[in-house]
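Extended Data, record dGTPase
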Amino acid sequence: MSDWHEVREELRAFALGLPEAREDHPWGDTVIKVGKKIFLFLGVDEPTDKWRPTFGVKLRSAAHGHALSVEGAAPSGYGLGRAGWVTVPFQSELPPVEVLLDWVEESYRAVAPKRAVKLLDELR
């Protein structure tokens, strides 16, 4: 998948398929939440002069360092980086989409209530 729109949509669709996940649009950005907690930041639908296409996930494993190794990736702003959040640009050379989906699932597991994680484990 070379088109960032396709990768973004695949991440979105995967995230929405996780137990109790839902889409929200605070601040005009697209986010995916489980309960009241965000586990995937997808930004706005189209880039502007002030925004480049990125996604953000919360990673606690070795995946955190892997995500930061993507060109242009950085700890997320607003203090989120200290909690393990990483912002990754879509227009960089990304790892295979399967790796990105693993990052989304790890982020989900980091914030989801135990009952939702249990549902996910039962589905796997």
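Summary. Strands lie at 21-24, 30-34, 37-43, 54-58, 74-75, 85-89.
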